[in-house]
Amino acid sequence: MVKIAKGKYKEWLTSEKLDIVAGWAQDGLTNNDIAYNIGINPDTLYTWIKKYPEFSEVLKVNKEVADRRVENALYKSAIGFTYEEETVTNQGEVVTVKKYSKPNTTAQIFWLKNRKQEWSDRQEIEHTGTVVFANEDSIPD
């Protein structure tokens, strides 16, 4: 059984500390990274997740935020997008330039393979026929 760091969990159930955990989850830190930052063993973190619903919910909701950001970035990369960039001219002036990032075919393939069955690398093989079981007495020498 995992020993919970006595009293430490109470400190991390305050709104201020839960906000810190939320930030780490939104930044994409893994549970192991979060446990390290708190100063506990990952097993202890998993115990806290099971035992304290408010802790579990903060992680779940904020990890979803991070996942959505990545999904949106992947989608933008797949379809292409415009963005603005500051650059310095030959005269030393800082100007804003509008640029276009063309669609990324690798992102498109990844997106389609994970969302469309006909693009998937997974192959389903259907086996037909029968299986015959034989005991040792029926097998010729």
TrEMBL record:
SUPFAM superfamilies: Homeodomain-like (SSF46689). InterPro entries: Homeodomain-like_sf, Transposase_8. This is Transposase. One of its GO terms (biological process) is DNA transposition. GO terms for molecular function: DNA binding; transposase activity.
